[in-house]
Write a sequence for this structure.
């Protein structure tokens, strides 16, 4: 009988031992009322060795292995709670010998005899370090994401496909005048004041990972409105579609745009008034001036009444001054027409050479007064250009007359015409006074003259080059100048050979 009981007991013991050893990451042990080991599984022995560096044995005192007095006290309190009959679960953190952090979930239960007296305690300890580390990682990631979205100077809101707020940053809440808590229970319809609920639903359905960009109006908590620029895109989180919206308050930009537009309209209207004034004035000045020039012509060519030499000089003076004045008025009128966009080019296809054939005789006459030679260096390409014939002559006239005007006597003014892919390049070079480097950049501005002193040697108004530049640009060409003071200047411009697509 005794042997039978002993066998049964042995069988039960082995069974229990098997159960204790089977879970791989759980350590199990039991202590008596003096905290001495009654039993433990292999796992517990391995883990305690890792943590304490000592090998535990049946009968040895659990608490004496714990070197750190604070930890020992903490553990004793837990054991005493179990010894007082309480069953409970706690999670604690330990460092092993290598100072690696371990998290243990410990289930404490009192051990009772048949009479119900507590004779010790049992502890089930699970190493949950992996789970805990994953939780810490997720928590850190959440904080990092939060910091990132909080650092944005734009409002950020994440909504689900139905328009409910999932997350928002403080900036977004502030823009709308709500607290973060209030924002989290809002729906997109409550702040968007421009689109209808149906339109918003459509927009949410349509937005994808490539994103969308639009402007809208938001309504603050206090019902005031402001303009917003939104960049949104969508991403799938499992089954859930989330829409990320970055919102920028553009009220100020909109206001500036409105003011700029107003200023532009005002400036355009002022410019129109100025052009109108100039046109009227020029017309009014031109009429009497034409009479002055005409009658001085009549007087000087009138052979019936012989003029004295002095009278002839005076009349020539009147006519020359009149012509000079007429030129200035014509220049001002031309520039103001270009400025106000009133000029319409009358473009046609013609040979480049024709312009030179027409203009060179006049220019040669002007040059001969200073004994200046005009040489057309290259063979003028036998090509057609598509341009306004009168304006091209005007460009050439202005550049050549400047080259002659700013050259000392007995020099050469040369013209080179080149052809590239789709343009004709014309360069007018002289060996004249040149232009200082620091004046080159504004030489094409109206009324700019290098010598602006009262005792100016060369006549002119400073309008010629401004007109030339505008005319070249109206033809979609470009103009530039290279010059060296005292050595000479080269003005070059391009013109298209074919009609440009409008
Ligand atoms: P204007 O000749 O009537 O003064 P422009 O607009 O034609 O007006 O020229 C502006 C200024 O540019 C001139 O006053 C002169 O100082 C300078 N300039 C123009 N062409 C030349 C040139 N070929 N050589 C030197 N200076 C020049």
């Amino acid at each position: 009988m005794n042997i039978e009981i002993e066998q049964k007991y042995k069988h039960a013991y082995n069974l229990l031992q098997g159960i204790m050893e089977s879970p791989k990451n759980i350590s199990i042990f039991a202590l008596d009322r003096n905290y001495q080991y009654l039993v433990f599984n292999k796992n517990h022995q391995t883990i305690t060795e890792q943590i304490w560096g000592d090998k535990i044995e049946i009968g040895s005192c659990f608490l004496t292995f714990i070197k750190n007095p604070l930890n020992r006290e903490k553990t004793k309190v837990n054991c005493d709670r179990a010894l007082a009959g309480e069953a409970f679960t706690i999670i604690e953190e330990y460092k092993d010998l290598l100072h690696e952090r371990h998290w243990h979930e410990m289930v404490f239960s009192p051990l009772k005899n048949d009479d119900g007296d507590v004779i010790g305690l049992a502890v089930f300890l699970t190493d949950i370090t992996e789970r805990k580390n994953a939780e810490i990682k997720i928590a850190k990631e959440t904080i990092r994401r939060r910091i990132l979205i909080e650092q944005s100077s734009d409002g950020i809101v994440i909504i689900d496909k139905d328009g409910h707020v999932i997350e928002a940053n403080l900036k977004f809440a502030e823009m709308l005048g709500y607290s973060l808590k209030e924002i989290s229970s809002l729906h997109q319809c409550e702040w968007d004041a421009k689109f209808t609920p149906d339109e918003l639903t459509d927009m949410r359905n349509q937005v994808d990972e490539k994103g969308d960009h639009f402007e809208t109006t938001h309504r603050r908590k206090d019902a005031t409105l402001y303009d917003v620029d939104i960049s949104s895109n969508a991403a799938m989180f499992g089954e859930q579609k989330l829409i990320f919206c970055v919102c920028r308050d553009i009220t100020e930009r909109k206001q500036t745009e409105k003011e700029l537009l107003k200023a532009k309209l005002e400036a355009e209207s002022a410019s129109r008034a100025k052009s109108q004034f100039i046109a009227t004035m020029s017309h009014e000045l031109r009429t009497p001036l034409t009479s002055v020039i005409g009658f001085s012509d009549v007087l000087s060519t009138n052979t019936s009444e012989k003029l004295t030499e002095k009278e002839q000089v005076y009349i020539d003076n009147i006519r020359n001054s009149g012509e000079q004045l007429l030129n200035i008025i014509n220049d001002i009128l031309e520039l103001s027409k270009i400025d106000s966009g009133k000029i319409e080019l009358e473009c046609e296809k013609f040979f480049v050479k024709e312009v030179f054939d027409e203009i060179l005789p006049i220019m040669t006459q002007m040059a001969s007064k200073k004994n200046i030679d005009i040489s057309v260096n290259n063979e003028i390409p036998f090509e057609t250009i598509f341009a306004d014939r009168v304006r091209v002559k005007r460009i050439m006239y202005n550049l050549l007359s400047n080259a002659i005007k700013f050259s000392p006597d007995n020099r050469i003014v040369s013209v080179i015409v080149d052809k590239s892919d789709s343009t004709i390049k014309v360069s007018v070079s002289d060996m004249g006074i040149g232009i200082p480097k620091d004046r080159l950049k504004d030489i094409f501005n109206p009324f700019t003259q290098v010598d602006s002193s009262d005792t100016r040697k060369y006549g002119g108004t400073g309008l010629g080059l401004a007109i030339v530049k505008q005319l070249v640009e109206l033809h979609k060409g470009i103009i530039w100048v290279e010059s060296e003071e005292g050595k000479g200047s080269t003005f070059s411009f391009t013109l298209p050979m074919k009609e440009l697509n409008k």
